[in-house]
């Protein structure tokens, strides 16, 4: 992922506790970015490429900072210089490892090289951390993560009154937060958490699920026409053609399966409308328990649609949305049970 994404994620880690100082937040944010400084050797290496004594700083030292050793150095520095030592040091360690995790998840180079992380270097080369499913640096999940991190950073700035701008200038930060709160006024007692109700999580997930229907559910690779006639030794590099399949791709008016496939993306909409406007108590209780089941059913339906091909954007979006919806609906149902138990206890004489 790009250093900007790493920095935003580090900033969000620093934003977990409310009462850290500016310096402590700077430490935690920096821990998410500085590992990539080991790539700076590339400048020296490129500059001296054609000279008599080329400097191989990139070849030799890239990923020198992507090691447990460097993580512990950062943690030690934070411990030495922070006011809330243990807390800041722990978050620096977490922020640093989040960087490694993001590199493993989404750091595939343009040439397809996975950049394995030499976690135990220079003591041992035993652990070279990499992941088969790693996506490329410019793949859409990286843009999605960056977008989400940016949105959360704005929300945090609106809520707390400070932003990453403050790491450079406190005056500019005040101006930024004032502009933000001028655009979205903040009342006394208004917090970001108040927005984040379970119903709003479900609504956001329903929108995401609806959007997912417009993306391909699965991808199928087959040799391009003409590739079959290629010489055997060329077949490995023979051009492939991809076909994408959507939720409605195999829709047939007489087949119930086609309706179910589309329904697995749309079912939350009528339910959320009923939850907002419906009055019947029994129906609401039934819906409360039905929703987690519908999440599982829809996820299973989408899985069945992608089982013979590679799952693609639409499927991943839908599964993310359904997971969020599932958690929110299970929490809602659980809270309802707790409330009912409390009511029973209050009614029964002690
Ligand atoms: Zn990195």
Keywords:
mainly alpha, 350 residues, two-stranded antiparallel ribbon, binds zinc ion, three-stranded antiparallel sheet, 2 domains
Written account of the structure:
With 350 residues, the protein is mainly alpha-helical. Helices cover 59% and strands 5% of the residues. It folds into 2 domains: 3-190, no CATH class; 198-347, no CATH class. The strands form 2 sheets. A 3-stranded antiparallel beta sheet has the order 4-3-5. It is globular and about 80 Å long. The protein starts with a helix and ends with a helix. The structure holds zinc ion (ZN).
Question: Could you outline the blueprint of secondary structure elements for this entry?
Answer:
Blueprint: H1 3-14, H2 22-31, H3 41-47, H4 57-61, H5 68-81, H6 85-106, E1 117-118, E2 128-129, H7 140-160, H8 170-183, H9 192-195, H10 198-212, E3 218-223, E4 240-245, H11 256-266, H12 268-277, H13 281-306, E5 310-311, H14 313-347
Antiparallel strand pairs: 1-2, 3-4, 3-5
Helix pairs in contact: 1-2, 1-6, 1-7, 2-6, 5-6, 10-14, 11-13, 13-14
The structure holds zinc ion.
Radius of gyration: 26 Å
| Ends apart, CA distance between termini | 59 Å
- Kindly state the percentage of residues in helix: 55-70%
Total domain units: 2
Mean pLDDT: 85
Shape: globular
Our estimate of the beta-strand percent is 5-15%
| Strand order across the largest sheet | 4-3-5
Ligand inventory reads: zinc ion
Could you give the order of the helices and strands?
Answer: HHHHHHEEHHHHEEHHHEH
Q: Number of DSSP helices?
A: 14
Uncertain regions spanning at least 5 consecutive residues: none
**Classification by helices and strands:** mainly alpha
Number of strand segments:
5
Largest sheet: 3 strands, antiparallel
What quaternary form is this?
single chain
């Amino acid at each position: 992922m790009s250093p900007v994404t790493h920095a935003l994620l580090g900033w969000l880690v620093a934003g977990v506790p409310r009462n850290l100082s500016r310096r402590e937040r700077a430490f935690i944010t920096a821990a998410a970015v500085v590992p990539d400084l080991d790539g700076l050797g590339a400048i020296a290496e490129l500059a001296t490429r054609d000279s008599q004594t080329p400097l191989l700083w990139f070849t030799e030292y890239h990923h020198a900072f992507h090691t447990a050793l460097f993580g512990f150095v950062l943690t030690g520095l934070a411990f030495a210089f922070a006011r809330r030592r243990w807390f800041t040091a722990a978050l620096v360690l977490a922020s640093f490892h989040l960087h490694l995790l993001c590199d493993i998840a989404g750091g595939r180079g343009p040439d397809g090289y996975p950049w394995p992380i030499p976690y135990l270097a220079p003591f041992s080369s035993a652990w070279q951390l990499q992941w088969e499913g790693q996506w490329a640096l410019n793949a859409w999940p990286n843009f999605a993560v960056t977008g989400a991190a940016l949105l959360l950073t704005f929300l945090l700035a609106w809520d707390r009154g400070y932003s990453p701008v403050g790491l450079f200038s406190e005056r500019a930060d005040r101006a930024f937060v004032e502009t933000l709160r001028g655009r979205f006024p903040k009342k006394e007692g208004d917090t970001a958490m108040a927005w984040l109700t379970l119903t709003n999580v479900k609504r956001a997930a329903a929108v995401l699920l609806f959007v997912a229907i417009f993306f391909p559910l699965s991808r199928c690779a087959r040799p391009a026409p003409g590739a079959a006639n290629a010489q055997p030794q060329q077949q490995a590099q023979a051009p492939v053609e991809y076909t994408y399949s959507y939720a409605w791709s195999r829709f047939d008016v007489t087949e119930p399966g086609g309706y179910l496939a589309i329904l697995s993306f749309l079912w939350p909409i009528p339910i959320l409308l009923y939850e907002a406007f419906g009055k019947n108590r029994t129906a609401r209780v039934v819906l409360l328990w039905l929703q987690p089941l519908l999440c599982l059913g829809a996820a299973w339906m989408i899985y069945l649609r992608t089982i013979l091909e590679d799952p693609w954007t639409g499927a991943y979006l839908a599964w993310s949305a359904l997971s969020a919806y599932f958690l929110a609906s299970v929490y809602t149902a659980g809270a309802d049970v707790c409330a009912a138990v409390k009511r029973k206890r209050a009614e029964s004489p002690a």
